[in-house]
Specification:
The chain is an alpha+beta fold. The protein contains 14 helices and 23 strands.
Length: 613
């Protein structure tokens, strides 16, 4: 009831404050309207000044003194308060009251169409504007240009440091402040602040508060009387159930509640005793089931580390975790690339209505690095990040389970953490296995297939060539004068050249092609279903791309350019001689070398018996 009272009084106070702020906003809107009206009047006056023949002629003749004098004359007539002419940031003419506000802007152009300057005309003095706003809004008004006070009504309001919005204390009284800005003369900003006293915003004993107070006190007294009456009637009966519930919570299912009489409490006692006996039997059954399940799950967990099928492993561990903690559904999300996003790779059970809780738990788990539990609505979720055994780097994956209704117990979290830890070890083993496999067939420097892998691919492609009667293209590439690069810039620069040429080769190939480092500065490409013209076209694209490379020097002082010579060959469908294909491409490469390098040569119809050295 106290909380309800606080809320009610707060709502009343907020309502009164909102009314005061609304009145202040109305005053601000009126002040803005007066400001806009002054600018409209200034706009009409600016047209008059901009078309004044004497003033314009003086400006076009660059007679500043005459223009200044004419501007003073126009100001003296009484309608215009200030005239300013700007040429960029430079002031050409400035006549009239320096405290004038709400200027209108107009461009002045010469006879040739060139801009003479920007004209600003004001018809509203700051003090007159402040008085008008005071008359219309009944609020205090303060006008400032930068840190300079232009006008204040009353004058004492100009001595205070005013915030843009909020409250300020002046002379021991609180005021609410509303401020808006307007464009001013010479491009400066004008701040216009309205102040309203806060005395009427929240009176201590307003009528609405008094009425609410009486209602709350009366309702509190009625509720208290009813509660005391009901409490005395039920205390004796409830005491017995309270004691029995305490014993039941402590694990004592043998003690029963007395069931004297035939009233509702006697029936409740009978049902309570029945529930106690059922709970005792169920607890024994659950203890046996949990022991059996934990033993089975731990045996399954020991097999995770030997499984090298990542997706099958994730399916198995998610299913085991869902069964182990009695969840409704679960999933595993895997990081497919370094610094990449998590991708859902395995799901079990029903996830409808559970994903929000799972995502919340996964966020906590990934940020904390340990098991996390989260609730979203009626759903609970457990999540665990699968990290490497050394604890470094990003999580390999994240596994989650969820269910509606009751949250997970401490035993559930421990079992779930154990299973997730076993899965992390197994995933790390899969990654290491794949890494070893990749290293065995990949050239460490260029990232292309190594010579061994290339020979395997070439053999497989020849088998397909023989079986299906398709063309098989082949390209050999050699970097021209590569030894000179090593001798001039060093082997580290030479390694950078090899990597850049390998990148060009990889980017130029199709997905079905197989680029490889053949040895030293030589590269090769196997091209399935490609005739000699197709192989030649690819080789030419690669040659031109290598020629356009400018590889930065390691010392940062310029770059180095290289060229390449290439030989292209193809085995027609009726031929199945692998050695002839390699020799033909190699011979074409050496013809390109002898012909001046930086060339691509097609293989001849027949391979010469003497291979060039």
């Amino acid at each position: 009831m106290v909380s309800v009272g606080v809320v009610v009084f707060r709502l009343i106070s907020d309502n009164e404050t909102a009314k005061a702020e609304a009145r202040l906003a109305e005053g601000q809107a009126a002040a803005i309207g007066l400001f806009d009206e002054a600018r409209r009047r200034a706009s009409a006056a600016s047209r008059q000044v901009g078309s004044d023949p004497v003033f314009v002629q003086a400006l076009r003749g660059r007679n500043r003194a005459r223009a200044e004098a004419r501007a003073e004359s126009l100001v003296d007539k009484g309608r215009i308060v200030r005239i300013v002419l700007l040429n960029g940031p430079r002031v050409v003419v400035d006549a009239g009251d320096p405290k004038a506000i709400a200027p209108a802007n107009r461009q002045i152009v010469g006879r040739s169409g060139a801009r003479v300057g920007r004209l600003q005309v004001s018809v509203m003095p700051a003090d007159e504007y402040a008085r008008r706003v005071r008359q219309v809004t009944r609020r205090w008004v303060v006008l400032r240009r930068g840190n300079r006070l232009l006008a204040a009504v009353p004058p004492t309001a100009g001595n205070a440091r005013l915030p843009r919005q909020g409250k300020v204390e002046i002379g021991g009284k609180d005021y609410r402040v509303a401020t808006f800005q307007g464009a001013d003369v010479r491009g400066e900003r004008l701040r216009i602040s309205l102040l309203a006293t806060g005395e009427a915003t929240s009176p201590l004993l307003s009528g609405s508060r008094i009425l609410a107070g009486f209602i709350l006190v009366g309702f509190l007294l009625m509720a208290l009387a009813f509660a005391v009456t009901v409490s005395r009637q039920l205390q004796a009966q409830i005491a017995r159930f309270l004691e029995a519930a305490r014993r039941l919570g402590g694990g004592d299912f043998a003690t029963e509640v007395p069931t004297d009489g035939r009233d509702e409490f006697a029936e409740l006692g009978g049902e309570f005793n029945k529930m106690s006996r059922q709970l005792a039997a169920r607890m024994e059954e659950l203890a046996r089931e949990r022991a059996r399940l934990q033993g089975s799950i731990r045996r399954i967990g020991q097999t995770f580390a030997a499984n090298l099928d990542r997706d099958a492993l994730l399916e198995l561990v998610v299913q085991t975790a869902v069964d182990g903690v009695d969840a409704t559904g679960g999933r595993a999300r895997l990081r497919v690339e370094i610094d990449g996003q998590m991708e859902e790779r395995a799901t079990q059970g029903r996830l409808e209505g559970l994903r929000a809780a799972m995502e919340k738990a996964e966020t906590h788990a990934l940020s904390s690095g340990r098991v996390a539990e989260a609730r979203e609505g009626e759903s609970s979720a457990l999540s665990y990040p699968l990290v490497r055994s050394d604890g470094r780097g990003q999580a390999l994956a994240v596994m989650s389970v969820a269910r509606p209704g009751r949250p997970f117990s401490t035993e559930d979290r421990e079992l779930f953490g154990y299973l997730a830890g076993q899965a992390a070890v197994s995933i790390e083993n899969v990654d290491l296995h794949e890494l070893v496999q990749a290293q065995a067939v990949t050239d460490e420097l260029t990232g292309l297939s190594n010579h061994r892998r290339f020979q395997e691919v070439l053999s497989n492609e020849f088998e397909r060539h023989s079986r299906f009667g398709q063309n098989l293209g082949f390209v050999m590439l050699d970097i021209d004068n590569f030894k000179l690069v090593n001798d001039t810039y060093g082997h580290q620069q030479g390694d950078r050249v090899l990597r850049e040429v390998a990148r060009v080769l990889r980017d130029s190939c199709r997905e079905v092609d197989e680029p490889a480092r053949y040895g030293g500065e030589e590269f090769a490409v196997a091209l399935p279903e490609t005739d000699v013209e197709g192989a030649y076209n690819l080789a030419e694209r690669v040659r031109r791309a290598v020629e356009e490379l400018e590889i930065p020097l390691l010392n940062g002082e310029g770059g180095v350019r290289v060229t390449a010579s290439l030989g292209a060959a193809s085995v027609p469908p009726s031929t199945a001689d692998r050695d002839s294909l390699v020799e033909a491409a190699d011979a074409a490469l050496y013809r390109a070398k002898r012909a001046g390098k930086n060339r691509t040569e097609r293989a001849e119809a027949t391979v010469s018996a003497d291979r060039p050295g």
